[in-house]
Design goal:
The protein is α/β, with parallel strands linked by helices. It is built from 13 helices and eight strands. An eight-stranded parallel beta barrel has the order 1-2-3-4-5-6-7-8, surrounded by six helices. The longest helix has 18 residues. Bound molecules: 3-methyl-2-oxobutanoic acid.
Length: 287
Amino acid sequence: MDRKKKTLTDFNKMVVEGEKITYLTAYDYLTAKYQERAGIDMILVGDSAGMVQLGYPTTFPVTMDDMVRFTAAVRRGAPNTFIVGDMPYMSYQISNEEAIKNAGRLIKEADCDCIKLEGANPEILDRVRAITGAGIMVMGHIGLTPQFATQLGGYKAQGRSAEAAMKLVDMAKKLEEAGCWSILVEGVPAVVGKAIKEQAGIPILGIGAGSYTDGQLLIYADMVGYYDDFTPKFVKRYAEVGKVLQEAFEEYIREVKEGVFPDDSLHAYKIKQEEVDKFEEALKGNN
Ligand code: KIV
C-alpha cells in the first residue's frame, strides 16, 4: 500500500486534534517494511541498535557509520514513513561543527527526516541551535537519557521529586526555545509527562512517560518479545517473536537431523529424466 509520508504539519495537526502519534524503533529493512505496512506514523532508528542489533551492553560504542548503515536500511524498508535518525554518543557533544557534519550525514547518506539528540544542558542547547540553523529538524530527548546515564546515576526513572520534575519542565522549554520541533521524554512518572505536554507548544512523544504525551514510542524488539536481555517496566508485549523464532530453529534442527527436511519432492530443483540418464552415464565414465 502506497501512502504519503507524514510531515511536521501533519504531526502538529494530530496534536491539535488529539490523535496520538505512533512511534517505534527499527534498525533494519524488513522490520521497517512491516512497520510501514502496519501504518506506523514515525520510526526512530535509535542508538539502542547498539544493544538490540549489535549486542553491546550499552549504547556508548555505537558509531556514526553504524547509524548511517542502520538508518539507510530502514529508509529502504519504509520509503513513505517519517524517520528520525539518532545521533550516537560523541557525534554531537564535541562541537557545533561536528554536530552539524554528523547530523548532515544522517540526512544526506541515510535520507532520514530529522535527527534526535539527548540532553538540554547549555552545550546541547547550542548544538540544537547550530543544527536547526543548518536547516535540519531536531527532536530533543530528556528524562532517562542513556548517553548521560553515568551522570544520572544509572539507568533509572527521572523526575521523581518535585525539584527534578520542575527541572525537566524547564529543560523541555529550553529545547523548544532552542528550536526543537518535538521532544521525546523517557522514563518519568505520568504526571511529569503530562506537565511537559501541557506546557509545551511542540509535540511531546513519550517512552515510559505515561499516557498523556502526544505520542508513544517503544523499542520494537521489546514490544514483540524479541530482545529479552531485560524488559523495562513500561513495556507491553504484543507478541512473543523470540519464542516463535526459537521454536522454528529447534524444529529445523530436529528435522535436518532426522532427515525430514529437505523433502526432495517439495524442496529440490527438478531436472528432466533424460538429463538424469545422461548425467548417470557421464558419472560412470568418471569411475
Ligand atoms: O536509541 C533509542 O532507541 C532511544 C530510545 C530508548 C528512546 O533513544
